[in-house]
Design goal:
two-stranded parallel ribbon, mainly alpha
Length: 190
């Protein structure tokens, strides 16, 4: 049995260790920024930051609206596909008459299968589009807070900040800069 890995997960698995190694200097000499040349790593929880700063409802509303728009477009596309398939099936049935030949039966079955496969493909595309919308909104929020995060990370002596997600499973809560980031963002808005 073969498994297919998500390309983003594969890139994270490859690039994250390389980034940590590069920032830590692989333990060789002093990097000039921290004692012993080792990188100081922290984590943040974007969901908690969005919630604490009051941005979560706005982001959720944007996500819901854009997903509904994508789903509506997909429904319209699927309806058009079904209409085309039905028109072709009607044409084939009229040609076949009351007793279709084996070839005509095969053609009718092939049209049904193509329509079903196309509907499945479009559902996969819709799912991918929904994931892309969520990722785009998450990236926009991360980019908004990045300048403040850079300051907070520097103030805490951190050289690498990871966003908590499915790839970060276990971490020392002492490395969590979420509360410090929320406080810094809160002081900027007051």
């Amino acid at each position: 049995m073969r498994y297919r890995l998500n390309p983003a997960v594969m890139m994270t698995c490859v690039l994250l260790p390389l980034a940590i190694a590069a920032l830590s200097g692989c333990g060789q000499g002093d990097s000039g920024s921290h004692a012993g040349g080792s990188a100081r790593v922290a984590v943040i929880d974007l969901d908690r930051v969005a919630q604490a700063t009051g941005r979560s409802p706005e982001i959720q509303q944007q996500l819901t609206q854009r997903i509904q728009e994508a789903a509506q477009q997909a429904r319209m596309d699927l309806e058009q596909l079904q209409n085309q398939a039905n028109a072709e099936l009607t044409r084939l049935a009229e040609q076949a008459g009351a007793s279709p030949t084996p070839e005509q039966q095969r053609q009718i079955q092939a049209v049904r299968q193509r329509a079903q496969l196309e509907a499945q493909r479009r559902q996969v595309e819709l799912n991918q589009r929904q994931q892309a919308i969520a990722a785009e909104l998450r990236d926009q929020f991360r980019d908004e807070i990045r300048p403040t995060l850079n300051v907070v990370a520097r103030d805490h002596g951190m050289s690498l900040v990871l966003v908590l997600n499915d790839n970060v499973v276990i971490y020392d809560t002492a490395l969590d800069l979420t509360d410090a980031l929320v406080a810094a963002l809160g002081s900027k808005t007051q």
